[in-house]
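[job 4417] fold queue: 2 targets
>>> target A
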Amino acid sequence: MVDSGGSRGNTCNMQGYHQEPQNPERSVRYGGGTQLHTGVQQFMAGVYAWMSAGLLVTAAVVFGLSRDVNTLMMLFNTPLYYVILFGPLIMAWVLPAKIPSMDRGVAVALFLVYAGLIGAAISPIPLIYSGASILGALGGTIGLFAGMAVIGFVTKRDLTGVGQFLVMALLGAVIASLINALFLHSGGMSYVISIIVAIVSAGLTAYYNQMLKQLYMMHGSQGNLAINGALALYINFINLFLSLLRLFGSSRD
């Protein structure tokens, strides 16, 4: 059930920040265009550093749990399963609105807890898919994610309308995924959901990169924006990876 549709409670909406169209005049507050450009680059580097930290936590949890079948059985055959199932879903909806007003240390801790819960949720993957499939899906995810991130960062087209549509599409896919995982158990529906999630996650990667750039130019890095941005991009990366693994991965059997 871990990969039932490629999405497991993984949605994120960048709430708590006021976004306006990009305005070059705002660069005055940061000391000019050159300094602003440098600031944006440093800010985005920080976002991706925190995202990478979350992915490392997830990978460490997956590696640790997948080596102990007894622990996995305990997690997925006891009430702890529902914590793993619904915990990330609740956190993904609550955290984006709360992080802007949190103490930075608390925001970081909760982001890493979320990454750990995702790691627990997908920990059976090494027991289900071959190592080559996992590495192939990871490589494809990195390449597609990086390409869409660059597009979002450099494009002049406003992606706000597309991004809002994609957020709603991802929400629908998550709901459909939960229904399928809990009640329907349809392989065909799971495959279709994975395709939708892969497309939506790729698009959201571009949208969030553009939005983070514009939010930084508007407000600087206040309100733990880097942590919230890392959370949004982390979720897109995980969703994209799970979808590609579901679509193209081969089982260990």
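>>> target B
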Amino acid sequence: MRRKVVVELDDATCKGAFTAHSPPLHVHLVVRNVTDIRQDVINATNHGDAASLRALADELAGIEGPHAEAVRNEALGEALLISGDSTAALARFESALDFQKQQADSRAQARLVQSIGILHLSVGEFAEALVKFDHVMRFAEESGYWQNMASSLTNIGVVFTSTGDYPQALETFERARRLAVDNNDKLAESQAVINIGTVYGYTHSFESALEYFLQARALDLELGNKPGLARVHSNVGTAYAKLNRYEESIVEYDKALEIGRSLGDSEMIANLHANKLATYVEAGQYDEAQRMLEELKHLPYHFPMTKQHVHMYAGKMLCALDDLEGARTELELSLEVAIANNLQSHLADVHKELRDLAKKRNDFEAYVHHSTEFQRITEDIRGKEATRQLTMIEANRHIEDERREREKERAVLYSTLPKHIADRVVRGESVNGDTYDNASVLFLDVVGFTAISDTLSPSDVIELLSNMFSEVDRVCNANNVTKVKTIGDSYLAVAGLE
């Protein structure tokens, strides 16, 4: 039997490695087609695996033709986006998109447009991101691709979160979660759940946030989703920090860092260092905070939220160490990043820090300005109306979950009980002690079924039972007999219960 192998030979191996007396070497080279590789690109993208994406791009480089080149550009674009090089990633995506437009491949176009939207989102271009996600959403609705719909809803929710529209964000994430649950997609469900937790975190409901993060962690552990687990560990760490559980917070961040390093995700690594910086500052461990700040100077990162975070907590640390001018410089840099990138969800926190710094510096004018801005933004995004809407959406989620459970119970009832009995159970009526003057129970099975089935293939056994029970169903329906259930080759029915 000839085995399929892939062989790589270098010059040293080839020179003098074989002689006239060497046995013949039979090598069957396996070359995968572009369609197979493209599916691996999609899978690696879903798992945030930059190393696998680059390896797939190398594999595609050995295949000639514009289709292979387009998929290679897509793979490299995704790898560059994960690594934080948004400019180079955009050039790759646009090149791949041009080819898919020529081929009229709508699904491939939608995937690339979504990736471009994520790129805009990563650099704080929220309006551009929303346009891209809306395009993909409309395509998904028209074509019935619910996976695209769920991912688009999640991305749209992230835009709403980033711009401080928390009620709208939560409603959007809930739609994505329901869609994922209805289609048994645990990866999409995990992404929606962790984002719901993030919204609660931004509204300072940290216990609720932690509850959702732990739900997402259970899903990602089941799936073996490393990027998802890294994000969950990071968010659990943030929730612990906000609840003043600082040691537990650092443990979670370190777990996330281990995964981030294994994935080669520079943005994730930088963001986690920023989170550790924030935790050490809040815990008053300024030596450790200084160490994090020094490490961040040598890490590449581009995401606006990471930059804003680093400047803000560097400012908080310098303020605590009485370097008030240095603190003002860092906090004003943080404010500039937040304003330039429309980071509404972070603006209130920066104004609060600048207000407290102004008080310490006896700068009355600055104190009034930042206090006013802090109050205005807080009322806008954390006010009574937002709280009311969050409460209503959470209540609707519980109602929807209960409705889904009731539908499952009804399905079981109607599959095991006569309809009129199941109707009474659903209405909450008692079905105990009913009396019937003339009732009959039919129980039939196939004589010698075990011996018969031993002589038939599984498909023939299924066909035999299906044909037989279909005929029994017909006879029962014609004679007012109600089937209760079938068990193997047995059939249970009742009559006289009308």
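[job 4417] complete. Note on B: The chain is about 75% helix and 5% strand.
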